[in-house]
Amino acid sequence: MFVSAIKGCVVDKLNGITVFVQVAETRSFVATGRLLGVSASAVGKSIARMEQKLGTRLFHRNTRSINLTAEGAMFLERCRRILNELEAAEQELFMNTESPKGRLRVSMPQVGNVMFVQLARFMARYPDIQLELEFTDRLVDVIEEGFDAVIRTGVLNDSRLMARRLGDFPFHVIGAPDYLRRFGVPETVEQLAGHQCLHYKMAFTGKLERWPFREPAEGGEMKIPVSMVANNIEMLIHAALQGQGLCCVPEFAIRQYLKDGQLQSILADQLERTLQMQVVWPSSRFLTPKLRAFIDFICEEGL
Question: What is the pTM of this model?
Answer without folding.
Answer: 0.59
